[in-house]
Amino acid sequence: MPRPPKTVPAIAAMPGAVYSPLGDRIRLRQGPVYPLHVGDTWRDPFDGGRMQDLAQAAHPGIHRYTATQGIPALVDAIVEKVRARNRIACERDGVLVTGGATAGLAHAVGALVEPGDEVLILAPFWPLIRGIAQSWRATPVEVPFFDRVSCADDALAAVEARRSERTVALYVSTPSNPSGRVLPAAWLERFAEWARRHDLWLLSDEVYEEVIHRGEHVSLARFAPERTITSFSFSKTYGMAGYRCGYLVGPPAVIAEAHKLHTHCTYSAPTPAQYAALAALRGGDAWLAETRACYRAAGDDAARVLGVPEPEGSTFLFLDVRSRLDARGMNGFLEDVFEDGVVLSPGASSGRDYEGFARLCYTAAPPEQVATAVRLLAARLGRSPVGRPPLSHPGGAR
């Protein structure tokens, strides 16, 4: 038992600066900065979904706590959406509105694991999921996957190779942050069969479900609803990252346990954010279609310039920069590109096998700025820029 001034070793081992070791220097830099290290959007939410649109007169009590599960009207709208769009059998007691998808996944993991349990994580992965597992004293087991696997048989072999008697869950992200891949339905169905065979939980991170550029998003819970907890987000879908509003969908028994953790850690998700989320479900589709087209144009341009495959979904490119590293390693490379004002996330934050990679979010700044940044990056990588930067983007700034 740690005593002052000691703290818990497992938490001390967790990284602090996950997205960029240079983050503290951004505000001190003289000249342009292109902060492409954090998954965010430069777009404002749609008219009706912004904080200034949510009047007290229309939403009495907007400044107060609400039901810990979520505003009843929002819970009802989520049930309707999940049944129609995701084709998941869902009832009200299988929904929990959370303070962002990050908190939702943390509560889900906390409800499932005991100290020493193992959670398999398909890599490269969303940087925070490893620390979430560690924070509950579970062991994250990284499964090199998105850049290694090309068929359903290989996908299943990859996870089976890392399974042990202590494995309790598999974390799957599709569309993937940071690889940009969208997993086919056939692969997800095989995962579901495998999890059922070994009596494992499935944690399905689907926060980029609406950011699909190629292919089709399929929810994992369609194939194993009795053992799948799915995390969704209004942050990524509707440009509301700062509002902190997401939701979990899963078997009512495990959602009830996650609800306990949510109540003790957050109590209830921010009430104004929940009203904005409800407005999004009711009237955000046109904004979303426009935004998706804008994201795809920015991602495709960045991929062409950097000489990598165009992303299938999400808002990221994951770049192999090993050939450009010198004795200083990744930190030296990040320092070099920062001289041009470009800020990237180190690949090691997404998996220990990816120390020679870097993550780039092509929606974190307006398209013209992203286009400039990727051309500066291409020059650093010794790749010839392809084409001119876009002069405009669909829909204009909002």
General description of the model:
- The protein is an alpha/beta fold.
- It folds into two domains: 9-45 and 286-380, Aspartate Aminotransferase, domain 1; 58-283, 3-Layer(aba) Sandwich (Aspartate Aminotransferase, domain 2), CATH 3.40.640.
- It contains twelve helices and twelve strands.
- The strands form three sheets. The protein has a seven-stranded mixed beta sheet, with helices on both faces.
- Helix 6 links the parallel strand 5 and strand 6 (201-205).
- Residues 388-398 have low confidence and may be disordered.
Count of discrete domains: 2
Q: Secondary-structure element sequence?
A: HEHEHEHEHEHEEHEHHHEHEEEH
SS strand fraction: 5-15%
| The CATH class of the largest domain | Alpha Beta
Dominant shape? globular
Reported CATH architecture of the largest domain: 3-Layer(aba) Sandwich
Pick out the low-confidence regions: 388-398
Query: How far is the N terminus from the C terminus?
Result: 52 Å
Please outline the helices and strands.
Layout: H1 9-12, E1 34-35, H2 72-86, E2 95-98, H3 100-112, E3 118-123, H4 127-135, E4 139-144, H5 152-162, E5 167-173, H6 185-198, E6 201-205, E7 228-233, H7 234-238, E8 246-249, H8 252-265, H9 271-283, H10 285-306, E9 316-320, H11 329-338, E10 342-343, E11 345-346, E12 357-361, H12 367-380
Parallel strand pairs: 1-10, 3-4, 3-5, 5-6, 6-7
Antiparallel strand pairs: 2-8, 7-8, 9-12, 11-12
Helix pairs in contact: 2-9, 3-4, 3-8, 5-6, 10-12
Distinctive features:
single chain; Aspartate Aminotransferase, domain 2; disordered C terminus; globular; Aspartate Aminotransferase, domain 1; 14% strand; 3-stranded antiparallel sheet; 398 residues; 7-stranded mixed sheet; alpha/beta
